[in-house]
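Continuing the series of single-chain predictions for the mutant panel. This is the parent chain; the variants come on the following pages.
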Amino acid sequence: MHQLAITHFLNSIFGGVANSILHIVGLTPKSAEFPITDPVAMQLLVFAIIIIYFLLVRMRLSADSPGAIQHVAEMIHEMVDDQAKGIIGHGHERYVPYALCVGVFILTCNLIGLIPGFASPTQFPYVPLGMAILTFVYYHYHGLREQGAWHYFLHFCGPVWWLIPLMLPIEIISHCARIMSLTIRLFANMFAGEMVTLAFFSLVPIGVPIIFLLLHVGVSVIQAFLFMLLTMIYVSLGVQHEEKHEEAHAH
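Parent structure:
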């Protein structure tokens, strides 16, 4: 069974623990000898890289002489905060940490595949699917928290009561389709980028593939930004207050 070196390393140390956890939750790995798969191993590596980076930022935090890594962290946070403020508006600060984590995690997952011996976790469909489901739960949770169950339910019912039988199924399907949209967009672009890059490296190993590596970097950044942007949009639609719902349904 072909595995990345890091996957083989993690299985050699934590394989037994992984098998035990999978058994507890009622899952059976494809291989009892190698329960940790490549995408899981790469996600763990990405998680470790992000944690180490922000620990370094925290340790070297300085108002008088900020270093390069602090400047990068502040720049990323300011960019995400500005986007959230423009999309969500008042109270956007509550949602910046999640949007920031989503953007940084997906971007790192996208780019790490450019390193020889590694693979982008986002080229495997269940990684984007997991992120999409997490985002789906997140914005619905905050919509319910912000507006209450009844007012949030009215979002799905249309402007007048007699449209409920039509609008409710459409809205439910529309929200579920967001999971598919987020998943397919990220997975398809990253998978295609990986395949194109590998194809040109095998055909023309010198010179030309650099163009496709740069293209892959561009696609990685754009897809991470789009996922983060759509997350903010879904949150804004979930938490916005619409007084018209009460007036329409009162009639």
